[in-house]
Amino acid sequence: xxxxxxxxxxxxxxxxxxxYNFDNTSFGQPNQQFEFANYTDSQANDYESYPPxxxxxxxxxxxxxxxxxxxxxxxxxxxxxxxxxxxxxxxxTLAVLNxxxxxxxxxxxxxxxxxxxxxGPLAFCLTxxxxxxxxxxxxxxxxxxxxxxxxxxxxxxxxxLMTSSGNVTLVxxxxxxxxxxxxxxxxxxxxxxxxxxxxxxxxxxxxxxLWATTSASRLFCAMSGEEKQRLLIAYPxxxxxxxxxxxxxx
Length: 250
Known about the structure:
By secondary structure, the chain is mainly α. The protein contains ten helices and no strands. The chain has helices at 41-48, 78-81, 86-97, 109-114, 119-134, 141-162, 170-179, 182-190, 199-224, 230-249. Helix 5 (119-134) crosses helix 6 and helix 5 runs parallel beside helix 8. The radius of gyration is 41 Å and the shape is elongated.
């Protein structure tokens, strides 16, 4: 056997002319017989209780069991994901343009409360600010959005005090005020090409304010169910759209 008594000298070369003897007696005897265990039927049935596993399907989700990869045709449109419905915007715009029509879907209180979107009002406010900018007015984006946000909060507080149902929400109030500002937006678009600081401009401005006030008061009364308080609701709407019209004129 090799001499490992000198443990301090690990890197020394191995000694020469050393014979290694291996005893093969511990590895088994020749003609050795191996005994294999036999399994009974009861033990075989224990292994059958485990269900067979299928191969992993890359198109199948491990959590829901449905296809994880879908085609692009199955995805909803982008406008639907953003909550923008062009048909609904067009329907409410036509309701504002015809303030004396009282037998449409927009006169339903549930429709006004549940489908109170803000896509149309934001688009109208943005268009109004753009028209003021093109007309050379100093009051455009900041003034329009600041006045719109303040008026929505004050109008919501007023409706909460005037109505007893409690179904009026801030989003529904903002939706009605934003859609009914459409006549003022048209007046601002006209102000790009001609001056409104004359008799004709004043008459058109008064007509736009009355038009927007009539539409807003009708929708607010349909939403709250307080038809007898229409004049009280129309007064703050008249002041609000009058301020927007003053911004457009001056």
